[in-house]
Design goal:
2 domains; mainly alpha; about 475 residues; single chain
Length: about 475
Amino acid sequence: MNKFVMSFNRLLEPKKQIPVSRQRFSNQALIALIIPIIIEQFLALLVGIADTLMISYAGEAAVSGVSLVNQLNNVFIMIFTALASGGAIVASQYVGSEDRKNGNLAASQLVLLILLISVILTAGIFVFGENIFNLIFGRVETSVFDAGMTYLYISAMSFPFLALYNGCAGLYRSMGKTKAIMNISIIMNIINVVGNYIGVFILHAGVAGVAYPSLISRIFAAVVMMVLSMKKDQMIYVEIKHVLSWNWNMVKRVFRIAIPNSIENGLFQISKVALSSIVALFGTVQIAANGIAQSFWSMSALFATAMGPAFVTVIGQYMGAGDKEGADYYMIKLLKMTYLGSVIWNFVFFLFTPFLLQFYSLSQEGKQLVIILVIIHNVFNALFCPTAFSLSNGLRAAGDIRYTMFSAIFSTVVVRVIFSIILGLWLNMGVIGIALAMAIDWGVKALLTITRYYSKKWQNFQVID
């Protein structure tokens, strides 16, 4: 066992070392940081599957209405995530510099910003919700519209709590306290699933039966995370006096990172809509196979996705401390961990794909297509995504925001869409062409990211004073 651990440690070590005294995170500390993030995101994906399954028992109109509204909700969640990410990067650098005063100010201003923006969005939904729904989705059946609006209004009430939870969770991750977030997430998800069961199968409340449990679970998570974030015995904490004030300099630091993230994610969502319209041209079997494959892809991509916050925490702390050599050391170390975990996870999940397909009502042709799509995804996810997505989070944590934004926009909006049209439509490869275009997108982004890393320009940015 000891030989295995020693071999594992040697495998992860970069060629260029730094003194042990400057290694803030041992291998055990990195594992303790990363495992809770993986569990948290794994549970979120499982709960999403469970939610979809239970909603299906509320009828087709409920399923349709909820699925449409979730596309809209994802835009709002993206905004909250971008803000939380901006705050986490700023906070992690203050943790690294051991500047508690400004760290507290950054944490408090993040809470203020995220609450203000989420309340404004909630109010906007209640005033313009029907107009927004009709503008985006056009005319739908009355039963679908009614179900969608019910779900939208209840979801909107949860926005401030979801935003607050994301913001405080980002602050906790910046300090490396991921286990606490995992525990709260477990309880939140249990409340959601149990509430959905009661709402759908016992109260027969339809769409409301799945919407209110989400609201309740988010209120619980937000309140607990806020209470924890105000504890004064930690490196940084939220101070009410700063939540109730406005510091424009600190707000600009958060926005300088959050706004490019929002633009990048927003254009990504738009490109997904454009690609969905292309997939809709390929016939029922391919549409169904692509939809099921996407649910498998989300689980397959779990490891590389979960490593993103770890890069933010570790690299942010080193850059905040002014230790660029240490940040470089952990860039490589975390990248090695991401590649190792991604290869294993993608391979293991692929082995379960034929078994999982047994639970889907899909033709043999459709199942074979799903397997092909999962092979394409998992191979290229393991090959490109650790660099394209996880390492790019390290660049963001260093403050290299614009480059990561423009490279992501180019690879996703330009490269993926163009190659989807060429491979999917012109060469008549259907959804296989769309999947290959996705792989090309990742490859281009990985190339741009690794080129930027080796240029060392990311070391020249300054997030905090």
